[in-house]
Design a protein that fits this description.
By secondary structure, this protein is an alpha/beta fold. Helices cover about 40% and strands about 15% of the residues. The protein has 9 helices and 7 strands, in the order βαβαβαβααβαβαααβ. α1 packs across α9, α3 runs parallel beside α4 and α4 runs parallel beside α6. The relative contact order is 0.14.
Length: about 260
């Protein structure tokens, strides 16, 4: 999946949620060998991500779009790709909406927002990328960044867990539908040090609990980036439809 340096318009990897957190770290990691298309809501933060990425032939592209507006995502992406003459060979969906609230505080709108970002928007994006006239059948790999919350319960995580659980179910069906041309997998991280988890890990009591519960300690963004890189590579050519738990042993620890 490395691009030829002589090609001014190599195909690229689309990364959603690239303005911060795991999405940003995945982008920086993959930029060593790939041209990127960075998506997020905040143009300034996307530019900051691009500034931290390694240079690429043709340059890394920025597609500023709010995935909460899932119905318009496909059309916006199609227009962007045509405008820039770009093609997408891989899609990493890292965008997420984390709201930790008890059931009594949830609203239908909050639940729908999580589903828009985690499920409806990647569906719209993939519909666009699978159109021959738009992407010339270049798509080969899809990686969804899910969460161990999709498999295990936690207080206050109902809406977030439901959105990630739906994402994992979507992944399994798409892996069958899009084979053999496209491979589709999920990564389910445990506790990772990112801006999204600062509120949790910033609490000394919670941080201490995490350290006890995770046999290998709290994870780093690189732990997930390395797994993304593997799933996008030829080394995983016979893997599709799989949810990969990467959590430092947390979900195997029955003493927690």
């Amino acid at each position: 999946m490395t691009f030829p340096p002589e090609n001014p318009f190599p195909s690229c990897i689309l990364i959603t949620g690239a303005s911060s957190g795991l999405g940003r770290e995945i982008a920086i990691h993959l930029s060593a060998h790939h041209r990127l298309l960075l998506n997020g809501r905040n143009l300034q933060r996307l530019e900051e991500t691009r500034d931290r990425c390694r240079p690429a032939p043709g340059g890394h592209l920025i597609w500023p779009f709010d995935l909460l507006e899932s119905e318009a995502a496909g059309g916006s992406l199609e227009a962007f790709l045509r405008q820039h003459g770009a093609l997408v060979e891989a899609f990493v969906h890292s965008a997420a909406l984390l709201q930790i609230l008890p059931l009594r505080s949830l609203t239908v709108q909050m639940v729908q927002a999580g589903l828009n970002v985690s499920v409806a928007s990647p569906v719209a994006i993939l519909q666009a990328l699978m159109k021959r006239k738009v992407n010339q059948r270049q798509l080969r790999n899809v990686v969804f960044i899910s969460s161990i919350a999709s498999q295990f319960g936690a207080k206050g995580f109902s809406a977030y867990a439901a959105s990630k659980g739906a994402m994992d179910a979507l992944m399994k069906s798409l892996a069958i539908e899009l084979a053999p041309e496209v491979r589709v997998n999920s990564i389910l991280p445990g506790g990772i040090q990112t801006p999204m988890t600062e509120g949790i890990l910033g609490d000394p009591q919670m941080a201490s609990k995490f350290e006890r519960d995770y046999p290998l300690g709290i994870g780093e963004p690189q732990d997930i980036s390395e797994m993304v890189e593997f799933l996008l590579s030829g080394r995983s050519r016979w893997i599709t439809g799989q949810p990969f738990i990467v959590d430092g042993g947390r979900t195997s620890n029955i003493t927690a």
